[in-house]
């Protein structure tokens, strides 16, 4: 299973960028800090000072800033002064890259003077080295990079930029030619010699003469090197060989186990790693060695994994960052991106429920309305429409009940109740009041769990559940609610919605996935372990009704002794606890019909190297920047800028040029844990679950 996935670790491999040699990043301003000091993530100390009041906004790569220029020289807008450090005074090869979101109306047509970046200051001598601005005073009106050379050099994007849409602009200079790019595609080039040295500061959001930028800016970079087209695309996607990458769990992963081990791929030049972890984005983003803010959890470690002490909290969002630290003599620190993930909740809502009742109901007001979400909005607030609820009349003098059947036995945690909520129910009182709760594992033998009273509804739109019943961890497949009374005097009984929660003690999330086909006969089986399991009994066979014990496992993984080609297998995992045994559901998979070539086989005895093999890397590097442009990467990015660039970039990062084996999903093995890129992180079979002392 996981032993097949030797190339997923390099999620940028579609770009062919593994091992690329980039020049020195002399300035990198992510603009993620909001209105606090703007940090230089290159490690060169070129931090910025905010002038004015730019507005924090969502960017393409993390957060960004919105600048409010006036459209003409003279100042009055917002900008950032990044100083005039020696590393920024570049006279030879250079590359500049930044995301911009123009906010001015028709700046080309109206001659609006607005500039997103410069190394310039009107009062200095010489007064400038370069500017990034709309081309007033030039042969073209478009956005341009212009340099103080002899003669003055201009390179243009060559087209109008869409207002309020993100785009990526960049230039490179190799000592002879200045080249301009828009969204990774070359747009213009011109001959250019040495750049004039000047004592001026680098300004983000201004041209040095007060022509301040109108619009958004994100992820600004300067290099003392001419980036290749591949390197430029990597910078556009927010990466760089000096930074940590490929976080595990992946960014924004959810349902992450509390005993997760964090992992990442190291930056190209990193000797050690500083790990920051906490529940506050601001703390994790701004902390450093000088001011750790309680979130610097490991400093100067050499491993590319970190095991948080103890267990993380249930249902909590954690933020983490890896700073890459160079070796001697400079020990430069490259500040990493802030990633986040959310841990598993204590209990999960039960799906696939069948609701029945012994009461008579209209076709539009049946018991299924209490478990199908009808009438609930995105905030779990209920409507007052009668057709969104259940209402029943007694039949034959029997007490009215409503019964719920699950698809397996669950360890029940609690039940939420939205009572009957039509507009006049404060008068009618059809909502359930005194209720007997019974449970059963087979629907035949029943046990009274509790006698409870359901709170009355508000009889208003926007009604939130107002009764929570503790189900005390009882094991049950059926729950029956018998109405002993309602809140009125008319013998009709109703509910709006109920929701049951369970504690995950059974095995779940199988790999291979349930129903998978073309599964490699050398595959191992894996699953997400039940929360109370100390060992696991694995049943396997070709007859779903007659599974035999194939073996026991200490961890959540098992390698069958033999799998035949072209066979359908059924399997089940029973989770064994200190004082419990939870039988799991029966899953199935079908193996390959015939043997594949040797290149598709893996050694079942050892875990894979998480780094792609050399032959895979060479295949990926065959995808050159020209091919990427021809296949529409730049067009795709440009066209989706206004629909959420960050999500698109994540998708681009996550592609892999090498196809995965049929029937498998991307993942990797790290340490003693199986990681799935879709947010699932499971122990593999090589060791015991970690126990706390």
Nearest-integer average pLDDT: 84
Radius of gyration: 31 Å
Number of helices: 8
Low-confidence parts: 1-23, 598-693
* Biggest sheet statistics: 9 strands, antiparallel
Number of strands: 47
- Alpha-beta classification: mainly beta
Quick overview of this protein structure:
By secondary structure, the protein is mainly beta. Helix content is 8%, strand content 37%. The model is unreliable at 1-23 and 598-693 (pLDDT under 50).
Notes on the structure:
There is one protein chain. The protein has 693 residues and is mostly beta strands. The protein is 8% helix and 37% strand. Strands 25, 26, 28, 29, 30, 31, 33, 34 and 35 form a nine-stranded antiparallel beta sheet that branches. Strands 1, 3, 4, 6, 11, 12, 13 and 15 form an eight-stranded antiparallel beta sheet that branches. A hairpin with a 6-residue loop joins strand 30 and strand 31. The longest helix is centred in the last third of the chain and has 9 residues, at 645-653. The protein is elongated, with a radius of gyration of 31 Å. The model is unreliable at 1-23 and 598-693 (pLDDT under 50).
Task: List strands and helices in order, with pairings.
Elements lengths: L24 E5 L19 E3 L3 E4 L4 E6 L10 E3 L12 E9 L4 H4 L6 E4 L7 E7 L8 E5 L5 E4 L10 E7 L3 E6 L2 E7 L10 E3 L9 E10 L5 H8 L8 E4 L4 E4 L5 E4 L4 E9 L2 H6 L9 E6 L3 E2 L10 E10 L6 E2 L3 E6 L4 E2 L4 E4 L23 E2 L7 E3 L8 E19 L5 H4 L5 E7 L6 E7 L9 E2 L2 E4 L4 E9 L9 E11 L4 E4 L4 E4 L5 E4 L6 E7 L6 E6 L3 E2 L9 E9 L4 E2 L4 E5 L22 H8 L3 H6 L2 H7 L5 H9 L14 E3 L2 E4 L3 E4 L10
Parallel strand pairs: 17-24, 37-44
Antiparallel strand pairs: 1-15, 2-5, 3-4, 4-15, 5-14, 6-11, 6-15, 7-8, 7-14, 8-9, 9-10, 11-12, 12-13, 16-18, 18-21, 19-20, 19-22, 22-23, 22-24, 25-35, 26-29, 27-32, 28-35, 29-33, 29-34, 29-35, 30-31, 30-34, 36-38, 38-41, 39-40, 39-42, 42-43, 42-44, 45-46, 46-47
């Amino acid at each position: 299973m996981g032993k097949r996935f030797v190339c997923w670790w390099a999620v940028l491999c579609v770009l062919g960028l593994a091992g690329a040699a980039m020049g020195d990043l002399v300035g990198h301003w992510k603009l993620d800090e909001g209105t606090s000091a703007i940090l230089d993530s290159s490690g060169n100390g070129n931090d910025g000072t905010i002038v004015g009041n730019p507005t924090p906004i969502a960017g393409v790569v993390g957060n960004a800033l919105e600048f409010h220029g006036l459209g003409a020289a003279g100042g009055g807008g917002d900008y950032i002064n990044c100083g005039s450090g020696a590393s920024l005074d570049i006279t030879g090869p250079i590359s500049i890259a930044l995301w911009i979101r123009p906010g001015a109306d028709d700046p080309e047509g109206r001659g609006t003077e607005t500039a997103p970046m410069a190394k310039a200051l009107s009062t200095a001598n010489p007064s400038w080295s370069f500017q990034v601005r709309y081309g007033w005073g030039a042969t073209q009106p478009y956005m341009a990079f212009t340099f103080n050379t002899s003669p003055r050099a201009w390179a243009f994007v060559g087209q109008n930029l869409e207002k309020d849409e993100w785009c990526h602009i960049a230039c490179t200079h190799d000592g002879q030619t200045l080249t301009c790019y828009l969204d990774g595609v070359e747009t213009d080039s011109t001959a250019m010699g040495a750049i004039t040295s000047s004592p001026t500061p680098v300004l983000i959001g201004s041209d040095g003469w007060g022509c301040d930028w109108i619009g958004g800016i994100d992820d600004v970079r300067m290099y003392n090197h001419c980036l290749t087209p591949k390197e430029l695309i990597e910078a556009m996607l927010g990466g760089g060989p000096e930074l940590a990458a490929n976080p595990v769990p992946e960014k924004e992963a959810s349902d992450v186990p509390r005993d997760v081990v964090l992992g990442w791929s190291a930056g190209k030049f990193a000797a050690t790693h500083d790990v920051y972890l906490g529940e506050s984005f601001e703390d994790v983003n701004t902390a450093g060695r000088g001011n750790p803010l309680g979130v610097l959890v490991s400093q100067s470690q050499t491993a590319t994994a970190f095991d948080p002490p103890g267990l993380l909290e249930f249902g909590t969002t954690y933020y983490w960052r890896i700073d890459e630290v160079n070796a001697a003599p400079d020990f430069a620190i490259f500040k990493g991106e802030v990633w986040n993930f959310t841990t598993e909740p204590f209990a999960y809502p039960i799906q696939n429920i069948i609701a029945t009742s012994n009461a008579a109901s209209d076709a539009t007001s049946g018991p299924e309305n209490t478990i199908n979400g009808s009438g609930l909005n995105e905030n779990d607030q209920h409507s007052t429409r009668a057709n969104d609820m259940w209402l029943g009349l007694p039949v034959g003098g029997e007490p009215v009940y409503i019964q719920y059947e699950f698809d397996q036995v669950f360890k029940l945690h609690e039940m939420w109740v939205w009572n009957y909520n039509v507009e006049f129910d404060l008068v009618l009182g059809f909502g359930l009041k005194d209720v007997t709760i019974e449970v059963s594992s087979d629907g035949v033998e029943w046990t009274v769990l509790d006698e409870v009273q359901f709170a009355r509804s508000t009889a208003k739109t926007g009604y939130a559940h107002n009764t929570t019943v503790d189900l005390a961890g009882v094991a049950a497949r059926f729950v029956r609610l018998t109405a002993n009374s309602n809140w009125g005097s008319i013998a009709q009984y109703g509910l709006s919605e109920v929701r049951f929660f369970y504690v995950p003690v059974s095995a779940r999330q199988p790999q291979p996935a349930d129903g998978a086909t073309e599964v490699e006969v050398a595959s191992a089986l894996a699953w997400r372990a039940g929360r109370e399991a100390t060992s696991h009994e694995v049943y396997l066979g070709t007859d779903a009704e007659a599974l035999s014990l194939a073996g026991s496992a200490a961890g959540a993984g098992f390698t069958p002794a033999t799998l035949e080609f072209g066979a359908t297998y059924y399997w089940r995992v029973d989770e064994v606890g200190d004082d419990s045994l939870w039988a799991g559901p029966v899953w199935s998979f079908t193996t390959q019909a015939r043997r594949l070539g040797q290149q598709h086989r893996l050694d079942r005895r050892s875990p894979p190297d998480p780094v792609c093999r050399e032959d895979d890397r060479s295949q990926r590097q065959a995808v050159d920047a020209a091919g990427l442009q021809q296949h529409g990467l730049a067009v795709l990015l440009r066209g989706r800028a206004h629909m959420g660039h960050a999500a698109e970039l994540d998708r681009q990062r996550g592609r892999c040029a090498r196809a995965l084996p049929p029937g498998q999903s991307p993942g990797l093995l790290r340490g003693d844990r199986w990681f799935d890129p879709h947010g699932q992180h499971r122990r593999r079979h090589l060791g015991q679950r970690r126990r706390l002392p």
